[in-house]
């Protein structure tokens, strides 16, 4: 009952000093907003990536070139062991485990695609693929069709474009099928348009042009191509067995010596998630550090405000004590004022931070909306702690004032 009375008195005091309360709450809100905003953006992006990875399935693993780094006297040297086109084709034929194997190679991730008088910015990708790539990587056809077996075998100049390519080169209601696009001095006929894939960590999945793998291999005369195999294992013995079989076959094909490490890299799809978790952990730590610094400044400001409040209300405190208020009652009233101001700023900062975090995630092409209830609750708990820490000393000072001296204060 007494607590409710003190709370009403605290709210009345806060309403009597609206500008001061607003400025103090704003400092708290900024700290909470930075914490909740960063965590919301990270959670939304991570959900989007997890959704994208679920399209691939948990039984996927990839095989690609190995990059070795050797350090000496602070210097790093990189040596690449390139998997050739013939090696990756032979691997696909010899893999005995039941599964779906797709092979792809990226010609470039910074290509300018042209059509008539229109052209894209030079940050689009051209990828050579086989018959399984689109399915294994979660793409869906919106218009047209996929590559035929003849087009794949002969390496014809045909292409399937992603949605951002269409938006850059065509008008909204224009028909893209059987139209011609060009890059690197070659012309390609469009046979398919993909649905928007979105997601983060997909290497700009909607900014790509796909061509037959055999056709892409023709570019190997002017540049080094890196071939990647993705295996979607459906073998009942599990993905670990499939990875073991794949490793053994590719070691034989590449003539890796017994006892020597692999000359290639093999990685499960769930290991990509764990790597991203490590990166997001660093971002989370950074977000918490920013919030702590901001809240530390806000708590010092709040303590200063409460000290000023004690000074301004010295006569009021003397009157309360003269009427029988105990030091505990005075201390609780001032503590509740500090906590109320912090919670007010925390609630506002939490909702603004959640909105900003989701806006950042949308800017990064995330399709997930996250309302971080856990972080919002944590923020409110932090606000209470900050309120107690900032308000205790002024509240204690107020409770120890001598009532007679307080009544003489002008």
Could you please describe the fold and organization of this structure?
Its main location: membrane. One of its GO terms (molecular function) is transmembrane transporter activity. Keywords: Cell membrane, Membrane, Transmembrane, Transmembrane helix. This is FtsX-like permease family protein. It is found in: Cell membrane. Helix 2 packs across helix 11 and helix 9 runs parallel beside helix 12. The chain has 2 domains: 186 residues, no CATH class; 170 residues, no CATH class. It contains 13 helices and 13 strands. The longest helix is centred in the last third of the chain and has 44 residues. The strands form 2 sheets. Strands 1, 2, 3, 6, 7, 8, 9, 10, 11, 12 and 13 form an 11-stranded mixed beta sheet that branches. It has a two-stranded antiparallel sheet with strand order 4-5. A hairpin with a 2-residue loop joins strand 4 and strand 5. The radius of gyration is 32 Å and the shape is elongated. About 3% of the residues have low confidence. With 410 residues, the chain is α+β, with helices and mostly antiparallel strands. The chain starts with a helix and ends with a helix.
Write a brief caption for the model.
The longest helix has 44 residues, at 269-312.
> What characterizes the major β-sheet?
11 strands, mixed
Shape: elongated
**Secondary-structure element order, as H and E?**
HHEEHEEEEHEHEHEEEHEHEHHHHH
* Total tally of structural domains: 2
